[in-house]
Amino acid sequence: MNNCIVIIPTYNEIENIESIIRAVLSQHKPFHVVIIDDNSPDRTADKVVMLQEEYKGRLFLEKRAEKAGLGTAYVHGFKWALKNNYDFIFEMDADFSHNPNDLEKLYDACHFGDADLAIGSRYVTGVNVVNWPLSRVLMSYFASVYVRMITGMKIHDATAGFVCYKRIVLESINLDSIRFVGYAFQIEMKYRTYCKKLAISEVPIIFTDRTKGQSKMSNSIIIEAVFGVILLRLKKIFNSL
User: Fold this and answer.
1) How far is CA 138 from the centre of its chain?
2) Residue 236 to residues 109, 229, 230, 232: CA-CA distances in angstroms?
3) Whole-prediction pTM value?
4) Residue 98: CA atoms inside 13 Å, Cβ hemisphere, count?
5) What residues make up the domain containing 20?
6) How many structural domains are present in the chain?
7) TM spans, by residue (predicted)?
8) What is the CATH number of the domain that holds 30?
């Protein structure tokens, strides 16, 4: 059985879903893909079902009843991946902001390198972001600076959503205790990995903003991330993380 699974959460990604699936499954390394769809009104899941005929045994679909947040979608995917005995579990967006050609770089960092968690980092070698307005670049960059200050993690891109976990990372974390659902989820997963003293590595990538579909960013997600970091640090201090 293939040991690499790429988890792609979706909500109304009909414009991107076929292209991203084909791009991932055409890589030299035979990745598998599981789509976690939150009952998209645009019938994203129906397109996935059609493609499953073409990619039997490599493309899977988990359809949830309603939109329930990025974090819970990934936790659902993590549990599914562990249950199905994958050793390398990837997070990836459906909108091509993460380049499928970079998947193997993350895999190499975990399989051949020392990383337990490999992060596709926008900021480890400067600012490698395409098509974002300056305001959003600055917000994202300084969010990671803020996270480093509060948590002590030496990570340049704490909110990155393009990552590879070794199985041991997800097995060591109580997935049912994950609190956050937006970008704070990405910070929480990295911080829990850091607190377990597992090895984290950043792999430089170029991030390109979506050209199709709509961003899921909202003010509530930003607020959750700002205050969530403080809460995570306090929970660590009081040994309740």
Assistant:
1) 21
2) 28, 11, 10, 6
3) 0.91
4) 26
5) 4-237
6) 1
7) none
8) 3.90.550.10
